[in-house]
Amino acid sequence: MDAARASGYARRVSQGEERVKPTMMDVAARAGVSQATVSLVLNSSARARLSASTRKKVREAAEELGYRLVRRTTKRSPAESKTIGFVVDELTTDPWMPMAFEGAREKALEHGVTMTLAVLRGDDDLERQALEQLGRQSVLGLILGTMLTRRLDPPPLVFDLPAVLVNCYDPGRKLPSILPGELVGGRTATQRLIDAGRRRIGLINGQDGLDATRDRLRGYRQALASNDLPFDPALVFPGNWEPSAGYEGTRQMMALADPPDAFFCANDMMAVGCYDALKEMGKRIPEDVSVVGFDNREIAQFMRPPLTTLILPHYEMGAMAAEMLLDMAGGLQNGHDQIKVECTLLDRESV
């Protein structure tokens, strides 16, 4: 729970600010959850993978504070825009941005707002022209998304419009951004293996230099430290997100004098290669070696045994981005927060 925010709200009330209104962040602080979780609960998102106890906790916190969700009405003038521009750098290689777009589209449609999509593949001139065209259309605002979680340097035009970043962030944190909770996800994946009694956990990680790679490694190390397990560099293999890296990393680590009894693969595609290598060596999953993936690719449920993995919440991230833009259009101030959305563990049969 964010004690600073909770005490800040109590202090404003105690100092006699009669008209102070609780915010969504106040509710999040009272409930001990993220702002994203509060929004998903209070908007009754059917696709949000949240426990009944979490939903109950959020609703009770909102009631205690007297928070009421701001709903946009149909009283806007006909001249106001009913369109949000969704701009991405990649749409076909991975499913993440289509999922984010779908989440944003469905949230926008709840309020009578449509989405327009532009795909920009690193072409600065094309990017400028597309953004200028969207600006001329008087869009309600922009959502900028990237396939890889990374720093983004938005063109100046973006700062002249209401804008939210999805799966990326600007260097000066001038724009609100919504990111997956990669660090906590890495810790959750590793902790699941520790809870299963595993003590030599190999990490097959992604490419160096990427935010997801860095944060999943940090989460892995935090889980080891929290359980008094030593960090062994020999148990970390720098992969490339492909099955070949999962196969190679597994073979290399299983050849150690003290091989792993579990693997945390930083994405499901590398877990596919990990499975192949273990089965070649006659190892049973999970009886001999447990495996956890990350991403919840469609293939994960069809692996044998089905793969335990973490869900990348891009649908929820897109919905949150649209909600934030609609709040801006409704006159709510935005504190340019960086919101991290939980990557939920999906337990199957590989642990």
The appropriate CATH architecture of the largest domain is: 3-Layer(aba) Sandwich
Strand content: 15-25%
Task: Outline the low-pLDDT stretches.
Answer: 1-19, 72-79
The first-level CATH class of the largest domain is given as Alpha Beta
CATH homologous superfamily of the largest domain? Response regulator
CATH topology of the largest domain: Rossmann fold
Radius of gyration, taken over Cα atoms and rounded to an integer in Å: 22 Å
Main sheet: which strands, in order across?
2-1-3-4-5-11
Structure write-up:
With 351 residues, the chain is of the alpha/beta class. The chain folds into three domains: 3-65, 434 Repressor (Amino-terminal Domain); 83-181 and 314-342, Response regulator (Rossmann fold); 182-310, Rossmann fold (3-Layer(aba) Sandwich). Helices cover 40% and strands 16% of the residues. It has helices spanning 3-14, 24-31, 35-42, 52-65, 96-109, 124-136, 182-195, 211-226, 243-254, 268-280, 314-329, and strands spanning 83-88, 114-119, 141-151, 163-169, 177-180, 201-205, 236-238, 262-265, 290-292, 309-310, 338-341, 345-346. α2 crosses α3 (35-42). 44% of the residues are buried.
